[in-house]
Known about the structure:
Oligomer: heterodimer
CATH topology of chain A: Rossmann fold
Largest sheet of chain B: 7 strands, mixed
Number of domains of chain A: 1
Helix content of chain B: 25-40%
CATH architecture of chain A: 3-Layer(aba) Sandwich
Number of helices of chain B: 25
Largest sheet of chain A: 9 strands, mixed
Distance between the termini of chain B: 66 Å
Radius of gyration of chain B: 26 Å
CATH superfamily of chain A: Class I glutamine amidotransferase (GATase) domain
Shape of chain B: globular
Distance between the termini of chain A: 7 Å
Low-confidence stretches of chain B: none
Order of helices and strands of chain A: EHEEHEHEEEEHEEEH
Structural class of chain A: alpha/beta
Radius of gyration of chain A: 16 Å
Amino acid sequence: MRAAVILFPGSNREGDVARALHQASGVRPPILRHDEVDLPARTDLVVLPGGFAYGDYLRCGAIAARAPIMDAVRAHARRGGLVLGVCNGFQVLCEAGLLPGILMRNADLRFICRMQHLRVENNRTRYSNAYALGQVVKVAIAHGEGNYVADSATIERLEDAGRVAFRYCDAAGKVGGLANPNGSTHDIAGIYSEGFNVLGLMPHPENLIDPLIGGVDGRGLFASLMAA
Amino acid sequence: MSAAEPEITDALVASHGLKPDEYARFVALLGRTPSFTELGIVSAMWNEHCSYKSSRIHLRKLPTSAPWVIQGPGENAGVIDIGDGLACVFKMESHNHPSFIEPYQGAGTGVGGILRDVFTMGARPVACLNFLRFGAPDHPKTRHLVAGVVAGIGGYGNSFGVPTVGGSVGFHKRYDGNILVNAMAVGIARADEIFYAKATGVGNPIVYLGSKTGRDGIHGATMASAAFEADAEEKRPTVQVGDPFAEKLLLEACLELMASGAVIAIQDMGAAGLTSSAVEMGAKGDLGIELDLDAVPCRETGMTAYEMMLSESQERMLMVLHPEKAAIAEAIFRKWGLDFAAIGKTTDDLRFVVKRHGKVMADLPIKELGDQAPAYDRPWIATPKQPILSAPDIAPPMSNHDALLKLVASPDLCSKRWVYEQYDSLILGNTIEGPGGDAAVVRLGDGPKGLALTTDATPRYCEADPVEGGKQAVAEAWRNLIAVGARPLALTDNLNFGNPEKPEAMGQFVGCLAGIGEAARALDFPIVSGNVSLYNETMGAGILPTPAIGGVGLVDDVAKAATIAFKSAGEAVLLVGGAGTWLGRSAYLETICGREEGAPPPVDLVAERRNGQFVFALIRAGRLTAVHDISDGGLAVALAEMAVAGRLGAHIDAGAPDGAGHDFLFGEDQGRYVVAAQAAQAAAIVDEAKAAGVAVQRLGTTGGDALTLPGEAPILLADLATAFESWLPAFMAGPQREIA
């Protein structure tokens, strides 16, 4: 598994996700600048990290989606290559047309950072097969615009095709109510592309890879990828 | 000089905040009448904020050195040696007045400014903290200010990408017209790669980096050096506007540039912008500076020399570069999309010369601008001593059970989750302990070492007795570091006081400083950086004296760091440091009895140190399962916080003396901790304590779903947690309005 992490100006969790990839694979992934036009040869996985690309000015992810490197990322995705967008990366993927829908301001209009439980909704993908179906995992969230919204036909399509990757839930796996931190439609925390090669999610599995820091529930995603 | 500039009149001088005698001093220094630009420059250099003219003679008395101190006060931030070739760079700074006028931008640029101070020295920021004080909850502006300040701190720090790991939030009516927003930043650098402001070499290029210069923030430092009157709102144009995105790029570009070896000296443009940064670089290096303002990147057209010299536009840096490496430096900055412009050079004539459109707009002696700034030994009167209240004379108005529930739901003691969840505390993946404990713990790289960080002060103690209050602020910061298992190393102070021209306020400042100095000496806890914020006064009413202390300690192995949460049932709960007796100025007296009276608890620094070292050794030996210092609200509140954090109750059966027991449970005697240990360890710990001269008594045992205080009905943890967590969200949600 050859991974590469994209660094937009204003990205700030590139080091966190690189650390998680390094822990899972023993290899430090290269960090590519936004103004490059090619991915390294034989790249399997492209990661768009969290942060505030281009300051999140205009709209989260809108400018980053048009950065030079994104043509190469889109081509990679079209070929079936793996593309993971975390938090701001998820927003970029939506703006880039690689995933449907959009991330709106959190329902209470405040940034929120806390530990959050997720339910694994599909464990038959290259991102999730190290988890059990329905497994409840604890990860971190840290976002102001994580409220996933799409038209009802799109939501229905995502649900029917098993493209909802993770849902916000409480420690017991129950969804809804206060377990939904941002008002996301159907408690959606992450979704797959039609070909299940692109995953966007708001939470930060890369911040839950250390028993001293909240736990290791995030490792499953990286372990799945390394086995893919 | 330019004919277009206004004529210097007494009124113009006064509007620049210069007193007649200060202006006369300046004219004597120059030997002529200054130009308008020169008046602007000197007003920026000689205001309270930049010159420390009321505080300088007192600050000199503070202990600032220790074998591990690399750089004490006087640079952008303090620097201490933390071993393994690494240094910790940190400072705290206030942004009180801007945050009151425009809370989002004021607080955000406060964070931006302190981060710049840290990375200017070559350090990569690893954590932020803050210390916030707001007016009474029922004041009409309080909710608006809390919402704006918290969003502003989050908006800047979250985007910049540094975790905000701790802080302090409190409320009091004395901050109604003058809130406190103190931001602290902490960074890590190689100990042998620290960068300073001192310029060297004649004829070296002075380079401007970062964002463009606009008209924002002009006279910000002057505004911060005067009391507020009724027109505070009209000072909004003096508040700067932050761009955390630009600051993130500036950080990366600066660190890359420093690594390239091109940088001789570097200074961020903070208060008084280009003026202060240029003068400081020259004066520290015994060099003159010549600036050609035509080369300064501007955001707006037609800016005058005066405006450019006083602008406080954010995210800007000034550097002196090795001439042969200027091209490399420029390439790095262009790569990050930032402005880069050579705007002047160092000279050998010790003059500060500013040119615009080919004309000399200012020509001033550079050393004297700093050295000859006025320094005042302002008259002060000591705060009268308050009577010592005897606990038996304080009748408890309610049961201890009810008092505890009320205290944990009070504005000052309730959970600040609503605040800290708006800050990204997890980014960088090293936050071992985030907000909500005694001190935050941030791992250094892959460990095992970590930094422990805290901000503390108890303004109501300082008001009643500045000397004891100053001691207590330092002692509590030290204690909070000990409580996580850290060796306290050094502190930064943010001294927030009222109008120094009033002897009572000046007496509070002098008293607190004496206490801070005494405690810092006794605890080997030197002051390495700080900031003084005076004139925190609105319409003649001053704030509570508030010397916020930012403490830094070192944890040798973060896996052994202690937390406040009870871990498992059946463990012994021990009280270290003796029984509570002191209710004067306590949270209990204020919140439960409605009285703000009496002398505050005295701080016995010898006992403080002895008790702390005892607890520290137990943590290091892995013998404690939970540790919490005892501060606001006393023993009972400490126990409640430990139980709520661990979702595990405790039965406290021993130790209740005769009488009401409210002094035992809620007394705020200093130098104390609650610890938990495996039951089998308890007897040995008590014996060892006795041998060490430390008072330790067994209080009870962990377990169950309730906290039971001696002689009281059990308090269900669920009720305790609800009381603790509900006040702030409910307050911030505001009154529910009926919608017709």
